[in-house]
Amino acid sequence: MTIYEQVMMQELQVWQRRMMRKPGIFNRLSKSVQDKVNSWIPEKVHRAITVTIKQMIRGVLFGAKFTTRDKKTPVSLEESDKVVEEKIKIYRNTAAAEGAITGAGGILLGLADFPLLIAIKIKLLFEIAATYGYSVNDYKERVYILHIFQLAFSSAKHRKNVFMTMKNWDEKSKSLPEDIHQFEWRPFQQEYRDYIDLAKFAQLIPVIGAPVGAVVNYRLIRKLGFTAKMAYHMRWAEEQHLV
């Protein structure tokens, strides 16, 4: 391995341990409160939200597939990382600007932030996948992208389960159903909503909505970009038989 790859492997091991970490007291408490709140929401509302987010994500996945360049010729990991960092920076700034604009517009524009931010996140993940040499035309690669999304925006308990699913992905993906309708959409949408609800609530408040929207979106994209980078580093290490 090159020196860069050795440093990357050390960073990857730290990240993997973090993904396996048990939920802390604060995390368990906040999750308990969120679960209680969700229990008050009627089942038909949960089903409606699940269907809405499912269709939204599927639409973004379908659209992003045609606006993302296909699988690239593999280059060194270091070169790929440099390109990915530039893409994260671009999307991070775009999301911050979008958050500021919708945050400044009050509740109505604030609500528009939800689908817009999802589209930005999914498009970034498509770009990162292509940069690391994975074809976004492959259904199983798009499922992997959804797993990365969950890994970044879930409670510690759910995150651990998702992480275990992603390990040895090339082997596990062989048993995936070919129909994306069979993807676990209910926990996907509920974990995502629980994760961002508190962070995004202040964006709906007049005056402070714009700066809050910019900062929150900036940080969400930064976290998603780093999570995706580590996830593809893990696959690279598995393909090199280093783990």
TrEMBL record:
The name this protein goes by in its record: EcsC family protein
InterPro entries given in the database record: EcsC
Alphabetical list of PANTHER family matching this protein: PROTEIN ECSC
